[in-house]
Design a protein that fits this description.
Length: about 170
């Protein structure tokens, strides 16, 4: 199991408690990583925590039956790159949770001369140096599904949308 943006390790710890044989939690922020390591030590639980960002994910980390990508994608300047990196290491299910914007009146409609359906994606302007501290993109539900599909996760096996949050479980297609 891979927990991307594991913060203080809650989901990593629960997955290990539920029987995962190997859990890798990655976190780009040193203060959260240190919290996760402290909790691991106090609980005396075997979890691999590393100071990595989603952009650091490579095949040499191995492949994972379950990848948790919870509350991270909207903090990224390069969300498709992140999903492509995760597709390379996901052998089972990616669980992606995100803030979302409500659908607009043109949700999912074709725009002439631009190819397939177009989905709303809102850009949040920030200074260039604050990635992962601020929000960068807030997708609509359709946009998030299209992101997943474009990066190889075309088989949506579960979804839950409540208010301004959405969660998708997706398998790699093809």
């Amino acid at each position: 199991m891979l927990d991307v943006g594991c913060n203080a390790g809650f989901c990593s710890i629960e997955m290990k408690r539920l029987g995962a044989s190997y859990v890798l939690g990655i976190e780009a922020f040193p203060q959260y990583l240190e919290q996760a390591k402290l909790v691991r030590e106090v609980l005396d639980i075997d979890i691999d925590f590393r100071g990595l960002s989603v952009y650091d994910v490579r095949e040499d980390l191995g492949t994972f039956d379950i990848v948790l990508f919870l509350g991270v994608i909207y903090h990224l300047k390069h969300p498709l790159l992140a999903l492509e990196r995760l597709a390379r290491v996901t052998s089972g299910v990616l669980v992606c949770e995100s803030a979302i914007v409500p659908p607009s009146r043109w949700f999912g409609r074709r725009i002439p001369n631009y190819g397939g359906p177009a989905y709303e994606l809102r850009f949040v302007e920030n200074a260039p140096s604050v990635e992962a501290v601020q929000n960068w993109f807030i997708p609509s539900v359709g946009c998030l599904k299209a992101f997943l599909k474009a990066c190889g996760f075309g088989d949506i096996v579960g979804e839950s949308v409540h208010g301004n949050r959405a969660l998708f479980a997706a398998r790699r297609s093809g």
